[in-house]
Amino acid sequence: MAVQGPILLCAGGTGGHLFPAEALAHELRARGLAVHLATDERAGRYAGSFPADATHVVPSATFGSKNPLALLRSGLKLLNGYREARALMRRLRPAAVVGFGGYPTVPPMLAAAKAGLPTMIHEQNAVMGRANRFLAGRVRAIAAGIPQSEADAAIAAKLVVTGNPVRPAVLKAAETPYEASRGDAPFHLVVFGGSQGAQFFSKAVPAAIEALPAPLQARLRVTQQARREDEAEVRAFFERMGIPAEVSPFFGDMAERIGHAHLVVSRSGASTVSEICVIGRPSILVPYPYALDHDQAANAARLTEGGGAVLAQQSELSTERLAAHIREVAEDPTFAEAMATVARSVGIPDAARQLADRVVALTGAASAR
Q1: Inter-axis angle of helices 333-346 and 295-305, to 10 degrees?
Q2: 52: which DSSP letter?
Q3: 12: closest CA among 112, 137, 124, 111?
């Protein structure tokens, strides 16, 4: 039996939510299925290349403020989003609706559940986010990128660990085996902070690089994501040091850059950790310290406990300690290659296929493969 109607993917407007949705979309379309995306206004720079037949912007809001007027505005916006989502469900008649977390998924996922449509959420992190926790009891199935550390019995009964889907660009980068830099050969360092936390690296990484010995500085080739406000200052540092570097607020080819990296320094969002593991690269992971559920520390735990990464808490990460971590990877090729091997062993490269199988099963149709 063929799938009747499109698959509607719902994702918040950040890369952490949209990237796994994008990977699933590629897999579903490869099976001949129609894919639509529901997201919010923030998704512009990501969603333009999203592989969907159509993108639907659904109003949404968070309850981040305790101000009564702000709460009222958020509530009204969510209600308006829910009404628009109900109309969207009637118009599209999707075969299944899959949410990837973030408050923008709440209106369409609630509307889909209310309409009796097959629904699933995918949780990228080791600790379920608040939007997904709110939706978990209302959907038919739950998939997880990482085993859940706090799943209760009701959630566990309908939860399957599929891994976090990674984009085709990540799978392409994974085709390049890791080879440690030796002797005087260039050492490629990739630094990025994701949607939260790039500001810290704009200060910490240049300071650590300045503390490195001159022979290692001469080997460095750097890619660093920096906020637009910090971009000129970071670029000026590398120019002053004579270190070849590319600095930008956003890199559209980050997967390829990770594939060429000898070391990655980054936050430990779920998509980031999953991509580093699938590609198989050593990393220094610095969890974002202000995450409400400390999910980034939990995401990094499995990888760091096995020796596939260095876990560095921001509050404890001095200039000297970060420089020492970079030196350890750069000056010990055997250590670097062991880290890369462990990271790759944790990766789930076929997560998109596993999740697509679950989505097709949810519709009640036979897989197109």
Answers
A1: 120
A2: -
A3: 124
Residues spanned by the domain of 208: 171-346
**110-139 confidence digits (pLDDT tens):** 999 999 999 999 999 988 988 999 999 999
Judgement on whether residues 53 and 156 belong to the same structural domain of the protein: yes
Same domain, yes or no: 90 and 127: yes
Write the secondary structure of 228-278 as one string of H (helix), E (strand) and C (coil).
HHHHHHHHHHHHHHCCCEEEECCCCCHHHHHHCCCEEEECCCHHHHHHHHH
Whether 120 and 139 have beta carbons less than 8 Å apart is answered as: yes
Claim to verify: residue 358 and residue 287 sit in the same structural domain: no
> Is 219 found in the same domain as 146?
no
Report if residue 180 sits inside a domain. yes
| Cα(256)–Cα(222) distance, integer angstroms | 14
- Beta bridge mates, 310: 284
Query: What is the CB neighbour count within 10 angstroms for residue 160?
Result: 12
- Give the SS3 label for residue 121: strand
Q: Tally helices (H) and strands (E) across the chain.
A: 16, 13
Query: Other CB atoms closer than 10 Å to residue 280's CB: what's the count?
Result: 25
42 class by beta-carbon count within 10 Å (0-12 exposed, 13-18 middle, 19+ buried):
middle
Q: Which residues contact 172 (CB under 8 A, 6 or more apart)?
A: 255, 256, 259
pLDDT tens by residue, 267-294: 998 889 999 999 999 999 999 988 767 7
* pTM attached to this predicted model: 0.85
